[in-house]
Amino acid sequence: MAIRFSKFHGTGNDFILIDNLQGQIRPGEPLRPELIRQWCHRRTGVGADGLILMQPATEGAFAMQYFNADGLPGTMCGNGGRCVAAFAARLGIVREAVSFLGPDGMHRAHLQAAGPGTWQVSLSLLDAAPPLAHGDHYLVHTGSPHLVVFTTGLEQAEVFEEGRKLRQSPPFRKEGINVNFTETGKDGVLFVRTYERGVEDETLSCGTGVTAAALAAWTRLGGDPRKGFRIRTRGGELKVVFRAPEKPGQPFTGIHLEGPAVHVFDGELPS
């Protein structure tokens, strides 16, 4: 039986999305990792950084089940969350707002049509503990684990080689980590390039990664988070707004990731 899908991207971070609310993939028949890897392959498949199933849920409009391109279940994906909200809007399930269950808990997205097949989506993320210094870097958990590395000359940096080296280093080899190389521009805009675990390569954008970079940048440099941090990625621009802790040790709250979600095409996958 063929499985219908849509492909979306959020600033170049691309996903295969499947509406499973009616159970076209039946319970007890989980998708095999090798099948997901085949579908996500950029030369012999659809090509994607991950796959998202829109599943039935007892709370919220649906549950977002996320798989990395390696075929294994993943943690929360910020750009994927924005894309699945836009996917639901395209299907007519929601209009301007939706609450859904992500891998880490409940999220709410606000959507605004921004052109044919394009939505501007603001996604709420869960509260985040303050960044933890790790040598010269910062460990931040924004639904997925991230290492934020502040640097210069990022446009020419060897992100694949350096990111893979840190991701495979002894502290992170077992559980894996995403590595976000971050440069602060003169205009205050952050430039972020991310090496993603599960993809095991640089992606054009990472939603929870740029969020981690924004929290680490505020910790390091200060600023007014209510105005938000503008973040440039190789796939486009995102914005992160949040409420900073009032006292040391308190979490960041009111975190929102804002940016475009774009429908690319529809198709059918062989099961």
Q: What does this 3D model show about the protein?
A:
It contains four helices and 16 strands. A hairpin with a 3-residue loop joins strand 9 (137-141) and strand 10. It has 271 residues and is α+β, with helices and mostly antiparallel strands. It is 17% helix and 42% strand. The mean pLDDT is 95. The radius of gyration is 18 Å and the shape is globular. It has a 16-stranded mixed sheet that branches. The chain has helices at residues 33-40, 78-90, 159-167, 207-221, and strands at residues 2-10, 13-19, 50-55, 63-68, 97-102, 105-115, 118-124, 132-134, 137-141, 145-150, 178-184, 190-196, 201-203, 229-233, 236-243, 253-270. The protein has two domains: 2-122 and 261-270, Diaminopimelate Epimerase, Chain A, domain 1 (Roll), CATH 3.10.310.10; 132-259, Diaminopimelate Epimerase, Chain A, domain 1 (Roll), CATH 3.10.310.10. The longest helix has 15 residues, at 207-221.
